[in-house]
Structure formats: C-alpha cells, structure tokens
Amino acid sequence: MENIYKPLAERTPDHQYVDRLKFILENGVMVRDTPQGVGALTCFGTLAPMVFDLANGVPLITERKLGSWRFAIGEKIAFINGARTVDEIESYGCGPRFWGQYRGGGTALGLTPDDMGPGSYGAAFHDFEVPGGGTLNQYEQVVEQIRLYPMMRTHLVTPWKPYYTARGPNRKVIVAPCHGWVHFRVVDGKLHMRMDQRSADMPIGEPHNMIQYAALLLMVCQVTGYQPGNYIHSFADAHIYENQIKDVHELVKRPPRPSPVLRLDPSVKNLFDFRVEHFTLEEYDPHPAMNISFSP
User: How many helices (H) and strands (E) are present in the chain, helices listed first?
Assistant: First the structure.
C-alpha cells in the first residue's frame, strides 16, 4: 500500500472515544447484576458507532498511553490463526494479563485445562464446523471472496457458535466472544470494515479492540491490494464498571491529540503470516498512562 496517512500537521484529534465515555457517564443505567459481580453503567444499543477514516491516523487512544497495543494486535493475529489454548494465544505476542487468568480453567467445562474451547475466538474464526464434517477457515474464505468477488455485500465473519456459547449443558467456551462480528465492503475502490461488538468494557477493553481491528483492516487491505477506507466500530452493550467511574471522570478531562500512524511490513502478503514484529507505531504522543481498575 502507498502511504495512506495525512501528514501529522493535517491530522485532527479524534473525540469519538472520549465522547462515548461521556455519554455513558451521563446516560448509562446502573446495572447491579453482572457476570463480573461489579455494577456497571450500561448503554444497550444506544451508543452511536464510531467511524474512523484511517487517513486521519489509527484509533489508538491518546487520552492515556496504551503501551500494550502490540499485545492487542497479537491477540487478533492469534485468533485469526486458530489459537485456542492459553499458551497458543500468548505465543503470538499477546501478554498474559488477560488470558493468563484462565489458565487451568477449562476442566470445569470438560476441556483440557488451558483450552478456551471450541466456542472460542480462534476456533470460530479458523475452525468453524461445517455440515458433513470438516471445518471452515472464515478469514481465508473472506479474503478470497474479496479478491474474486469484490462487489459482493457478503464479506462477513462471525465469532459466534451458539451451540457452544449458550449457557447450559452444551457450553464449551470459557469466555464467550465479545467482539469480532466483521463485515467488509468495497466502496469507491476502497475497502471499508465494520466491527460489531457484543460487549464492551469501555475504559479497559475497548481501546485494545479499537487498535486491533484497525490493524485487521490494514492487514486485509495489504493482502487484497485495496486502500483502506473507514473502520466503523459499533456497540451492543457498552459499559463502565462502577469501580472505574472515578478514573473515567479524570480521563475525559484530557483533550485528545492527533492519532498516530501504524506501519505494516510490506513484504507480508499472506494474512496468516503477520506477526507483531511486522507493525511499527509512529507519531504517538499520548497523555500519561493511567491505572484503571480491571473487572474481569
């Protein structure tokens, strides 16, 4: 891909993330009964999508330094490649902060100890069961379809296997997928992507999801030969946990700064060959880091 980004002097600060935090603080309903056991200010279906023109930079938040951006991209790469055990996920450069807490937990669902299950992200993306036996690699299929039939409106990927993800006797997943409903569309010669998120921890998880799906669009653009257009991020259940509210009030006082740029190694031509070392971040000037409470 040729240089897709505007010069730094022409990139404008993006207020979409901080504006959505403010919306939840002002309009969210406090839901006390949550799976995490911590109350959460919640907006269900009422939070407007964020639309990012990647020419203005990638949506890596600047309101606080996100030093773990590589971990987020590594996680997405792991899932694309079918990783479903804790060791496999971490082997792609995803740090142990999140997935490490589930080490050994698979036995409660009849799985091997570190297996996240056949209903997990990697299993859904890379090994989706098909009628008559065998599995489907969804990302391999969608990339091929974009190449051969770019005009189609059916460039879709799902992380959801309802047989395994519903609560009940068939459940075979430790963490039901929270994100990853992806729809690509070629419009006016550019590849656009929408990602629908089922559940969004806005202060902690969401910033990681934003950068990892921006990276996904850039990866798919590189291997299909399209210039990136818009990355649209939409929400179902968006929330701020009760123990995060004080920190979020401080965070929203910080004015956003121009977004950075993310460079990909141009030698990578296969989606499944990307690794975290193929990404370089430039012109990132965030506010200082913050320690915001994590509610697993």
Answer: 9, 11
How far apart (Å, rounded) are the C-alpha atoms in residues 279 and 274? 9
Q: Work out whether the CA dihedral 261, 267, 145, 91 comes out positive or negative.
A: negative
User: For the whole prediction, is pTM greater than 0.85?
Assistant: yes
Would you please indicate which residues are annotated as catalytic (active-site) residues? 178
- pLDDT tens sequence across 170-223: 999 999 999 999 999 999 999 999 999 999 999 999 999 999 999 999 999 999
Q: Whole-angstrom Cα distance, residue 154 to residue 246?
A: 42
CA dist., res. 115 & res. 110, Å (int): 10
Residues 6+ apart with CB under 8 A from 235: 43, 45, 47, 49, 196, 197, 200
Instruction: Give all domains of the chain, ordered by start, each with its CATH number.
Output: 8-66+134-279 (3.30.572.10)
Distance CA 227, CA 85 (A): 34
The residue type of 57 is: G
| 261 Cβ contact partners less than 8 Å away, ≥ 6 residues apart | 5, 57, 58, 281, 282, 283
